[in-house]
Amino acid sequence: MTATDDERPLLAVRLDDLFKTVRPKGKHWTNAEVAEELKRTNPDLKVGGVYLSQLRTGKRSNPSPDLLAALARFFGVSVAYFFDDEVAESVLGELAAIEALRQSGVRAVAMRAAGMKKENLQAITAIMDQYRQLQGLPPVTDSTAPE
After folding, report:
1. Confidence of residue 82 (pLDDT cuts 50, 70, 90)
2. Are 70 and 38 in contact (CB under 8 A)?
3. Whether the Cβ atoms of residue 12 and residue 55 lie closer than 8 Å to each other
4. Nearest-angstrom CA–CA distance, 44 and 47
5. Do 134 and 128 meet the contact criterion of CB atoms below 8 Å apart?
6. Per-residue model confidence as pLDDT tens digits over 119-144
7. CA-CA distances (angstroms) from residue 89 to 19, 92, 136?
8. What is the largest CA-CA distance in the chain?
9. How close are the terminal C-alpha atoms of the chain, in Å?
10. How confident is the model at residue 70 (pLDDT cuts 50, 70, 90)?
């Protein structure tokens, strides 16, 4: 989190994180586009791009339960994401993994690793860790890494 994140309400930070990292239908969405999509699927919902911007910046902080539910559905998360630290941490971890897979070349490595024996995955992981260290990248701590 940045210093400005510390100044914004938790809801604002979490909603902004969704806008920045989740890509429904494969694209980044503007506030206005999300508002239009929400109204399209929920015609009775009162929401606009300006209001979503205010929620993301913390200028407004009390959205209706219907709006929170619609935002959660749109971004493919549980409503609990906005309020529960454990759920939010889990979602953000999954989002980071998805974002890593979007990077050029990472998907190709993952596809090649699928179906390999545990011993082979351990050897490949060790080699990749060495290359990360050589490039000055931080070590990866992943509880799902091969044991």
Report:
1. very high
2. yes
3. yes
4. 9
5. no
6. 999 999 999 999 989 999 888 876 55
7. 16, 5, 26
8. 55
9. 31
10. very high
Rounded to whole angstroms, the Cα distance separating 105 from 90 reads: 25
Structure token digits, residue 88: 């939010």
Overall pTM > 0.85: no
The predicted structure's pLDDT at residue 93: 84
Give residue 147's pLDDT.
46
What is the secondary structure of 16-51 as a DSSP string?
Answer: HHHHHH--GGGS---HHHHHHHHHHH-TT----HHH
Q: How far apart are CA 27 and CA 22, in angstroms?
A: 8
CA 66, CA 63: separation in Å to the nearest integer?
A: 8
Write 122-126 long-range contacts (CB < 8 A, 24+). Answer: 122/146, 122/147
In the numeric block, which tokens belong to residue 65? 């339960």
User: For position 58, what pLDDT does the model report?
Assistant: 94
CA nearest neighbour of 11 among 51, 60, 45: 60
Residue 107 pLDDT > 70, yes or no? yes
Residue 125 CB contacts under 8 Å (≥ 6 apart), including other chains: 145, 146
